Amino acid sequence: MKYDVIIIGAGPGGIFAAYELMKCRPEMKVAVFEAGHTLDKRHCPIDGDKIKTCIGCKSCSIMSGFGGAGAFSDGKYNITNDFGGTLYEYIGKKRALDLMKYVDDINMAYGGEGTKLYSTAGTRYKTICIQNDLHLLDASVRHLGTDINYIVLGNLYAELKEKIDFFFDTPVDTVAAVNGGYEVMAKGETYSCADCIVSVGRIGSKWMEKVCRDLNIPTKSNRVDIGVRVELPATVFNHLTDELYESKIVYRTKKYGDKVRTFCMNPKGAVVNENTNGIITANGHSYENPELQTENTNFALLVSKHFSEPFKDSNGYGESIARLSNMLGGGVIVQRFGDLILGRRSTPSRMEDAFITPTLQATPGDLSLVLPKRILDGIIEMIYALDKVAPGTANDDTLLYGVEVKFYNMEVEVNEQLECCYPGLYIIGDGSGITHSLSHASASGVHVARNIANR
Ligand SMILES: Cc1cc2nc3c(=O)[nH]c(=O)nc-3n(C[C@H](O)[C@H](O)[C@H](O)COP(=O)(O)OP(=O)(O)OC[C@H]3O[C@@H](n4cnc5c(N)ncnc54)[C@H](O)[C@@H]3O)c2cc1C
Questions:
Q1: Distance in Å, CA 102 to ligand 1 centroid
Q2: Which of 43, 110, 332, 455 has its Cα between 20 and 30 A from that of 386?
Q3: pLDDT tens, residue by residue, 84-97
Q4: In this predicted model, what pLDDT tens digit does every residue of 306-326 receive, in sequence order?
Q5: Distance of alpha carbon 218 from alpha carbon 393, whole angstroms
Q6: Measured from the CB, is residue 376 less than 6 Å from ligand 1?
Q7: What are the pLDDT digits (tens) for 367-403?
Q8: Could you tell me the CA-to-CA distances from 237 to 223, 329, 386, 417 in Å, in that order?
């Protein structure tokens, strides 16, 4: 089978590349290969009742399938160069922002209309934070919510499938450079194309490493972010989340000078399990629909670690810590902040005694047996610092779920077209190690599609 363009992975990067090709060059023959299911068949079996923890499905519906890792995410599209990836280093700050705004326009046109765009511009919280040694980063954030995000994806798919060949439940095994084009092998069949866009996300990190090894594509190690997901009564953060929705706050610890930052804030949301290649970590999301909201707000507190010499495997380090928590807790561990400070584990009875109802069934335990001292000390310092702008954060009953790890794919060497050393082979989205968010991944897809279309 011959195509002009083959896209590997139907996450935001792949979807927006397909969308832009369909709009700019409708005559082009485009195929999308996706390891996971169609959107409507994506279903995580954890129901909190019969199935309480991750059972390691062959294809994880949270991470794989149409919509990628973004399908059941909170649908927070952060329009900023300050975090979410370093796309701007390749394509320039203005172009990166323009592309993120373009993606936002498409989301609005496909079902997101009416959702709120929050902004930190001109907010008094910037001053309040800085007076307390905390730094609030600049961003505009569109919160679609898990529910509206799902509708937008459904609408996009309805249009894309009319013009583009989708192959679901079809993981690509290999990519080979042949006769100035590419051959993609999947389920024993060979498909050829002139241009190939690889957008395999975090779940495709191991596969991406193999492709780079096989094709001798240069890469470099990336950082890993390690920490916990904090859950507390929504009222503690209401003043911030009502105005900003998501506040990205950075704090430099007094003890080590490490930076700790808040990440992925979900007002009135729920904490969830995330399964990356069999490792269970914590994450969170929230719904736009008030009926589906909870009484708690959750966010991550993360510390970045980047190893280079002689040890380079930052992800391996994060994986080992996550495996330790999985070994001790059978999955994610939860601990009351008060128990952590007193140096004792949380037990089921201490959890029942707490004035907060956890939104994720995790194993009560002791995070100090899992997280390295330096990281844990930084997180504790940050919780006390946040307590000054959001009193109640350092409450004994504040829940810490561990561990949360943000794995970043190793960075693939690409040019400003996001094309690797093989002409016509583009590596985009989180799989490239360059982006780590919905907006940056989507923008990278549009950028590459426009380059192909204009050539
Ligand atoms: C629970 C959760 C909540 C999140 N919330 C937010 C949020 O609110 N805001 C935000 O900005 N980011 C959020 N993120 C991160 C965000 O989802 C990702 O940054 C984004 O989805 C990356 O897009 P991508 O297209 O690069 O990769 P992905 O979305 O990971 O998609 C990659 C796709 O490629 C497929 N694939 C992998 N290997 C192969 C192969 N060999 N052959 C075929 N297909 C393959 C996978 O199955 C997957 O569907 C969240 C992530 C999770 C898990």
A1: 20
A2: 332
A3: 999 999 999 999 99
A4: 887 888 888 899 999 999 999
A5: 44
A6: no
A7: 999 999 999 999 999 999 999 999 999 999 999 999 9
A8: 29, 29, 10, 41
